[in-house]
Amino acid sequence: MGPGLSSARPDDTQSGADRKDLTAQMTGSHSTPPTGSAIVTRFPAAPAEAPALALEIRGLRKTYAGRRGKPGKDALNGIDLEVRRGEMFGLLGPNGAGKSTLINILAGLVVKSAGTARIWGIDIDQDPRNARAAIGVVPQELNIDAFFSPRETLELQAGMYGVPPAERRTAEILETVGLTDKADAYTRSLSGGMRRRLLVAKAMVHNPPILVLDEPTAGVDVELRRKLWDNVRTLRDGGVTVLLTTHYLEEAEALCDRVAIIDHGAIVALDTTRNLVGRLDRKELLVTVEEAVETVPAALAELGFALAPDGRLHVAYAKSRTRLPRLLGAVQAAGLHVVDLETRESDLEDIFLELTGTRPPAPSDEHAA
Prior knowledge:
Layout: H1 16-27, E1 53-64, E2 73-84, E3 88-92, H2 99-106, E4 114-119, E5 122-123, H3 128-133, E6 135-138, H4 150-160, H5 170-176, H6 192-204, E7 210-214, H7 222-237, E8 241-245, H8 249-255, E9 258-263, E10 266-272, H9 273-278, E11 283-289, H10 298-302, E12 306-307, E13 313-317, H11 324-333, E14 338-345, H12 348-356
Parallel strand pairs: 3-8, 3-9, 6-7, 7-8
Antiparallel strand pairs: 1-2, 1-4, 4-5, 9-10, 11-13, 11-14, 12-13
């Protein structure tokens, strides 16, 4: 910690004067980084200076050493990935696929085994300090000091990044994540969802041009999840590049311009969200008929029709080989009268399942307030 930043923590027995003095030390009057530290580039750069690629990863590998004579484990197997400036990019994959390892390498928390990575044009090996300053990471873990308030947490984080007091946006960021009314409460008193929002706020204090969200809405209720989506869209519209890892495929479809699916440390698919969904040549048709059908007519069964649990006729078909009018014509030819019909397109969950053989875990809203 640099000059003017105390390592002491407020506790329940501290006097108001002591707490006020600690806060003053944290907010500080220093307008430059601590003595002896390297100068950190201020972001974002002017458009003429900003790189075309926000992230550029080539041949990235990470092998964890084996224990007790066991062979090592390859977490990343030569990842090549480009994230364009200003886009919303989704990184999907089952648990253990390598998503968190990739993010931790970018954040400087894990040392890569091979390959290169550039953050905002800055090589993470040649200039690690400025590479880290160009990125804000929202981790999965709720690693927040329980003895500081949200306001103190953001001020401390801003001080560590050398943000001058006059340029800090603490009140604005707390308002953005909906924590204004909890700004001076102990962090330990916040719900899980509030702590999740505070993590997003921490990642924003130094105004990074790239924001990495690692499962940002895990354990967050639906209403708050959508509010966070709106916050992320606002950041993207303001020029921030967003890399999102998520198990909520609805989230990836709603937010991301492009999506990469990673499995066993390798990229198995990378395309626009629309093109990925379009890869699956599969569609479903559900038909409601006037008649009470107990057995599917033989002619319809030959086309793949079956009875759904709710009594409707259901068929899955290849869009490239079968046309909807043919199916509806077969229903009418069987002497049945169509009352209503529903079609279902493939989505990212189907792509995820086809490529990885694993369904994403079901969302949980526990401790979400």
